[in-house]
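> run fold DUF985 domain-containing protein
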Amino acid sequence: MIPRVHELITTLDLSPHPEGGYYRETYKSDLFFDADKEAPSFPGRRSCGAAIYFLLEGKDVSRLHRIKADELWHFYEGSPLTVHVIHPDGTLEDICLGPDTARGETFQALVTAGCWFGASLAKGGHALVGCTTHPGFEFQDFEMGEREELLKQWPQHEALIKKLT
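> ok
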């Protein structure tokens, strides 16, 4: 582990995330809505929004998963990070988060609800990003991708699916 990664894990109080990497929830809105009436795919009373820090290093990946909410990614520091998104129609989109906008990197990227997605570092090193969800994230809305099921559905993305599952 490089010293900067150790420092970030310690000072930001990050913990291992089930999909890979490290995270900590930094915000959960005190505003709630009755999701049963407004958004039936979100049962019960739900927070309007939430945010986390998320850290990957070296060859670590964020494994393919999907959630029921839109997720906005924010780049903070480190190496470029590729967010790999498989849309419901099977289209693959690779979004490079990073500081070099002249090379097509971006500071923010949106993954819409229901897409399968994961992330990997383009050049090793580390990347500290943030993720904001609307409505607020709950683990009951989180689904980890199963390799065999994803390969049946999208065989054209075999290399990526094998890398991120």
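DSSP finds four helices and 13 strands in the chain.
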